[in-house]
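A common beginner's mistake is to predict each chain separately and then try to dock the pieces by hand. The better habit, illustrated here, is to supply every component at once so that their relative placement is modeled jointly.
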Amino acid sequence: MAQAGEGRRNGRVTIREVADDAGVSVAAVSKVLRDAYGVSDALRAKVRASMDRLGYRPLASARGMRGQTYTLGLVLPDLRNPFFADIMTGVNNALERTQYQVMMGISASTAKLETGVVDSMIDRQMDGIILIGSTESRESLNTIAEKKPLVTIGHHDPSAEAFDTVNNNDQQGALLAVRHLVAAGYSKIAMLSLQGEPSSILAEREQGYRHGMVEAGLGGAINIASATQVMRDVQFAAKRLLQGPRRPDAIFCWTDFIALEVISVATELGLRVPEDVGIVGYDNTMFCDFAQNSLTSIDQSGELLGLQAARLVIERINGRTAVEHFVVPPRLVARRSTSR
Amino acid sequence: MAQAGEGRRNGRVTIREVADDAGVSVAAVSKVLRDAYGVSDALRAKVRASMDRLGYRPLASARGMRGQTYTLGLVLPDLRNPFFADIMTGVNNALERTQYQVMMGISASTAKLETGVVDSMIDRQMDGIILIGSTESRESLNTIAEKKPLVTIGHHDPSAEAFDTVNNNDQQGALLAVRHLVAAGYSKIAMLSLQGEPSSILAEREQGYRHGMVEAGLGGAINIASATQVMRDVQFAAKRLLQGPRRPDAIFCWTDFIALEVISVATELGLRVPEDVGIVGYDNTMFCDFAQNSLTSIDQSGELLGLQAARLVIERINGRTAVEHFVVPPRLVARRSTSR
DNA sequence: CTGAAAGCGCTTACAG
DNA sequence: CTGAAAGCGCTTACAG
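With all components supplied together, the output reads:
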């Protein structure tokens, strides 16, 4: 329909139409668009007026062909953990006054997307990538970082050079959990970790856990079980722990969601929380507050992590090459699940 | 660096390099890429081999300039409701054997993104849009549909022409909840609905609730409260209900998450669930299964909804113009929260 | 069945 | 400070 000539397509206004309307060149409009230097206030005002009048919106694909798309890719391991919502809030806050828009992808969904989601974000010319809870190797991350500015959240690699990392101090978080449990009178403290891809944050937490146990003179009671994120698996692991010969009197779980399942299993087994078994989670997600859970948890300031990650990736886009590793101290939020 | 000439950019292999490697034209490679008609098996095989050898990946931006980006935009209201994870699973299943990739955005985060996330997806040349839990008006949705194939999930508009809808039968879902509660011996049944933008799914559920109450001869006990999704707000509304003069003996909540908060409030008030108050949620998310919640809920088959939505949007991309409205029947999953 | 050429809407040197 | 022209990597008619 509507024979070209005026460059219409899909009803979209193009940069050429804005230029014609404002009586300036296409290049001038482009400069205004990018807040580039070398445009007079008068020209800028004229162009802005035309853009508003015509309802102009630049096409990201076209921009991406030569410059940026002003899009950041955020990769989440899954959509079930409400902790990621906190991170997302921080990311959005950081982007509020910028031209950047964030698009999310899930890494652990179908086979196709396993690592493919990052590639597909690169194919889509994302200007930068934020990877949450990655279990990729250093080399693999370096390969990504070669192509696009990269920041990881929840991946410890303090000697990485090619990409920035943003973390809470997971070792300290686990330590806080153990100390808190010890102070509350628990001694047979087990840890429930994640099975599968080796994760640096879990390695850190396991180390913090061991440290805390040894520190309290409980080195002999160290007991690390693990399960995948599949519900049935977690139930099985929890039952093994709670019905086994070395039944713990407290369990430190690697994330709130798992901790809630452990509470569920304990309840079904007729064990009382916190009297028979104390439970600690990680992330301090909103579910911890519910009276039926009242779960003690480690807060790692997800919103701050997201804010920092967005800030760092934009800095990289703007040319920073020196690496930055941001670490926030965790803090324990005590609730009834450990108040023996 | 690396003076052009061979067309390298950012280490990316271009379609031209593939063409040169295979000894064919760029147009031929493009056809193979799109599985377009009119290429011999021999040529296709040659090109495929070259693509593999060089590790070629088409640049979505460039494709988008003329044709498709093979990207679908999925808009979620927020990241806190685990129900969306079910929908996402279905979407990914539908996309498994296709070239399409899905990118997600959040609609209800910051001011900037309120409705802007859809526009920004259009700017990014998404081939189609799936909108979850939209509260936009018919005209507003029509405007989107004019620009891109659109499918909504959780938005009832059976006479819409320009876009497809995918839903469970919310009216029936609410009816099931009321009937179940009545059968369990509850009679002062309240509903806790969502305050804010008028939502067609909540309108449907409220109607189903009213219908169920009247049907059971409980028309006089109809009592609809509402709260935003903010935790404090929900707590306040729940307290008002449970401490008010017309204290209900059961509450039907518009989503599981809210129901869990209501259980929390009831527990804190010293009320027993299900003895003093029965609770029903909606979505049958995995949290319902936890022993400490054991929440009766309405299952709306999120995975199926996602699968259908993805299927429909791809059909639209491929040229279908006749509208489709897909509705799945809900089913109630009874648990302890209503077993008086 | 195959390919040369135009063009999508921008940005980027470069010249004025 | 401003603009004309080339070009990003694809797809799309069109011609052979």
